[in-house]
Amino acid sequence: MRGSTRAASTPVMARAPLVASRRRASTFASASRRGCRVTPSANATSLGLDLEAPGWSGGYGTGGKVWSSAAVLTRWLGANAPALGLEGASVLELGSGTGAVGLAAAAMGATRVVLTDGGSESLLKLAKDNAARNRAPGGAIDPSCDIRVARYRWGDGKLPAAVADAAPFDLVVGSDCTYSVGGHGPLCDVIREVLTAAADDAARVVLGHQHRCGAAMLAGRGSAGWGVDPHLDMFAKTAAAKGLVVEEVHRESLAWHGLRNVSIVSVELKKQLAPSKTNATGDVGNAGTNGAVAAAAALAVTLSSLALPAAARQYSDYDPKQFDEFLPGINSVELSLAQPNVCSKDAFKAMDRARDMYEIGQLDEAEKALSSVLNGTCGGPNPTDADKVATAATWKLLGDVRVDAYRWNDAIDAYNSSLKVSPAGTSAPGALFGRANAKEGLKDYAGAVEDYGKCLELRPNGPDAATPRFERAQALKQLGRWEEAIGDYDAAADAFTANRQKREAKIAEAQAAFAKFESGDVPSATARLETLARQLYSSDVRAALAATYWRAGDAAKAEDTWLDLCQIEDAQCGKYTDKEWLTSYRKWTPGLADAMQDFLKLRS
């Protein structure tokens, strides 16, 4: 490796702001190789990157924001630039979104940067525009710097030409690439391919990970609250299975901003074990067993390294006020705060406590924790923008708690309060989705359709659009608006497929077939169910297919299909006489359930 970033203790962050206000200045003056860096002024305190980060609007999805993990990763790269050999390096950014981290690497001295993302064309254009803006005269990056932008969705096969032509890379970076467990395998495949192609094991891979999973992993508890984020743990296990080693090299609390912990992890190729010795018959001898034991021990050491030792469990020692320069300049992190804020910190601690109670079913205690801060430090006059964001998030979580308690009207009141404080902020899509759920609980399906639509207006594309689109279709089904429901089911199936959520995609496809049946298009419903029956080992799909055959007048096919499906283990054929079970539990449409009842009555 080019150099180690792991000192005797956890590396600390640099004290000088390294990323990003709108000021056009740079830092890291160097007497050596120039790289892509613009020579800074004598008292420069920022990289001076000028980035557009419009957030969710415009079809950018999650990539349109610069998350807090990107801020921490960029500062960490700056603090460890010499050890990483960043000056003159070739850098690949995975899941680049706006390109913030990769462009910061260019401003720090990298000579070649390739920004990749699997998002929309508009998102790739955003990254290209950000690169062009910062390479323009007077920008933070020298115009001669080689910066490329390429579409690359992990798991699509070989690296795209723009990436392969720039290989090998000295440094691979990514922020929040590990938030989706479903993407861990493809991500590890990409990392392994890049590391394997690197000459002399010179490449380094460092990723920023924002803790999201489980209340115990949230910031704001001091040293007693440090824990392993399950997503990070699962990523380490997936990486180990693919011959990679994950090590956490830095962890930071952003509690003063109401944000969660961020970890920086290094990913390396696992050292190869000695070849197993075999006897004359080809059986693996003791050497193979010893190798397996060694591999298991190495994995255990790797996973245990994710829990920092007591001496390392501390907040970063630089002044948190310096971090504020990043947040409003990018206008994209979850909370853009001008200074540490009492309401935000109190709200975050209350949400932390509420999630603890929520997870063990103590909904009353969760409500008390949230109500206390809403009636306290976040209930005062003249709230700041940060207060509004924190308050909206707290009201939204209170609505979620009340939905789980089946207190539909109270939940709607909480969501209304969240949306009143922040109609289009980061909590708004979740508040609209939750309010739609509550309206469905009250059987106000028209109101639910309206709120799901508003949620989709804020998040029209990307991975977060699949579920609200499916749920809107479910509400449309209750209203008998079949053609609209079919459109949403089909769109949801496509979105789930893009997210690699196969099970959810097939459920949406089945529901679309049911809606086709209700619309009177029995041939199309039959064709869709026949396709699903070939793809899935599902008794329910075959039962629905038998009902459509019967309604189409093909009694022989209906009977054959029914007899075949009843051979499937756990087919529950006896329950299909219960229409309530079909419509409430199996989510069949009324007409399809009636067709099944007619078919079974004839058989009996």
From TrEMBL:
SUPFAM superfamilies: S-adenosyl-L-methionine-dependent methyltransferases, TPR-like. The keyword Ion transport does not apply. Keywords: TPR repeat. The keyword Zinc does not apply. Pfam families: Methyltransf_16, TPR_8. InterPro entries: Methyltransf_16 (IPR019410), SAM-dependent_MTases_sf (IPR029063), TPR-like_helical_dom_sf (IPR011990), TPR_rpt (IPR019734). TPR repeats lie at residues 392-425. This is Uncharacterized protein. It comes from Micromonas commoda (strain RCC299 / NOUM17 / CCMP2709) (Picoplanktonic green alga). The lineage of its organism: Eukaryota, Viridiplantae, Chlorophyta, Mamiellophyceae, Mamiellales.
